[in-house]
Give the backbone structure.
Amino acid sequence: MGDSTLYTIGTALHHARDHGLPVQLLVGGMWVDGVVVAIDGFGVVLSSRDEEHAVVRLEAVSAVKVAGAAPHREPIAAAAHPMPGPRPAGMPG
């Protein structure tokens, strides 16, 4: 069975905010760009180079472009081992 990752618009915006990456949001057929300065479950605040900001409802965002590589999972090193669980009673240690 393969692994899958759910990468949502909210996840992309949180990633952009955490790394200071510029974004473009598709809202009502128009692209709005800026840097994410705040985000919650309802909306996002973008700050632009022109000392302006925009507040956009997340439900209105159709797509997001992030100026940066998509995050990816780090592979577990070959030498890494999971921590052992508790031993059943009567098993030698």
Q: What stands out?
A: Residues 15 and 71 are 8 Å apart (CA to CA). Helices lie at 9-19. The chain has one helix and five strands.
